[in-house]
Amino acid sequence: MTELAVSIIATALLSSFFTLGLAQYIFNKRLKHRLENELSEAIARIKAEVGPEVEARVKKGVMEGFKSLPSREVLRDTTRSIAKTGLDIMGDGLKMATRPRTTTKGQPKPGRRPGATPLDEDN
Fold first, then answer.
1. What angle do CA 51, 57, 59 make, to 5 degrees?
2. Do 58 and 79 form a contact (C-beta atoms < 8 A)?
3. How far apart are alpha carbons 39 and 46 in whole angstroms?
4. Could you tell me if 102 and 109 are in contact, meaning their C-beta atoms sit under 8 angstroms apart?
5. How do the pLDDT tens digits run along the chain, 123 residues long?
């Protein structure tokens, strides 16, 4: 009984391997070259049909991008206002750092000179 099952399984496996080998041989010899040729022809057709349209759209987009750039004066004024805002923020931060810290009653904290910054401490 087991010999019969083993021979059935072996026959099925050998038949499967033979079928797969034959299919691979036919694919490599006949179909592969034809599929590669058709694929390369399709790519060439797509490049010929779509390529000029894509190129024209890219050129148009680049030109519109350059036209929409702000003028030199606008860029200069914007840069100056951003730099001034940054300096104002830094100045306010430095003013806050030089203020003496006070207790909840409004008195300066003991051990610190009035007007001293946290960097002046020797602790």
1. 100
2. no
3. 11
4. yes
5. 789 999 999 999 999 999 999 999 988 888 888 888 999 999 998 888 888 888 889 899 888 887 777 777 888 888 889 988 888 888 887 777 666 666 666 665 555 555 555 555 554
Q: What is the DSSP letter of 111?
A: T
Query: What are the distances in angstroms from CA 63 to CA 22, 39, 47, 82?
Result: 58, 35, 23, 28
Q: Where are the alpha helices (DSSP H) in 1-123?
A: 2-26, 32-67, 72-98
Q: What distance separates the 2 farthest-apart alpha carbons in the chain?
A: 105
Unique residue bearing structure tokens 């010929």: 48
Q: Which amino acid is at 6?
A: V
